[in-house]
Amino acid sequence: MGDPLTLLLFLFGAGFLAANLIVLVDAVRYSRRRSHAVLTWRRPLPKPALLPRAIAVGLGVLVFNKVVVLRWPASAVFGEGMMFLYYAVWYPLSFSLERGFYAEGIWLERGFVRYADITGITWRDEPWPTLIVVAKHRQRAGHLNVPPDDYAQARRILRDRIAAHELRAAGSLLDLGGHDEREDV
Question: Are the C-beta atoms of 158 and 102 separated by less than 8 Å?
């Protein structure tokens, strides 16, 4: 690891290894929760969907060339290998994990939060319905982009959870005091 390029590729590999593990953990969690889905949907692919595929193909060719043609040891292509795994396997898989409402909580764009951990909720309607959620164990808010066709049902689910006291939104983001919590959703 003497030259700067090898060090840089190793650091990229370490970062992509972490990203791969995060998606793997999400996939395992999703496989356990999917049977308890109440209202879910898949995230749409981003507009430039061809770019990650092109990156995966390029990295695949590069790794194949280094390992098979040039006969480099696998450890020498760690960085490129981790990037290839991310773009070829884990990134596309992350879009198949359904976001939405489950029996025990909400799967936000960046992870799952239990109803009991939610301390504040509100909606943002532009450019599409987005649920903003604050959880007591997080320092920042999470969000869930809701398809317009599912907006009414999502609000109904939240109202039902509040009425059943499974979701306490007393610390709602827009709480000015003296109102019914069910009106926050």
Answer: no
In the chain, the domains with their CATH numbers are 4-94 (no CATH), 99-184 (2.30.29)
Query: For residues 157 and 163, what is the distance between their CA atoms, to the nearest angstrom?
Result: 10
* Distance, CA of 70 to chain centre: 37
Task: Using the CB atoms, write b or e for 7-30: b if 16+ within 10 Å.
Answer: eebbeebeebbebbeebeebeeeb
Q: What pLDDT digit, counting tens, does each position of 34-74 carry?
A: 999 999 999 887 777 789 999 999 999 999 999 999 999 98
Q: How far apart are CA 169 and CA 105, in angstroms?
A: 13
Strands 105-108 and 37-41: unpaired
In sequence order, what DSSP letters do the residues of the chain get, joined into one string?
--SHHHHHHHHHHHHHHHHHHHHHHHHHHHHHHGGGEEEEEPPPPPTTTHHHHHHHHHHHHHHHIIIIIS---GGGGHHHHHHHHIIIIIHHHHTTSPEEEESSEEEETTEEEEGGGEEEEEEE-SSS-EEEEEETT-SSEEEEE--GGGHHHHHHHHHHHHHTTS---TT-TT--SSS-GGGG-
Query: Is the pTM for the entire model greater than 0.85?
Result: no
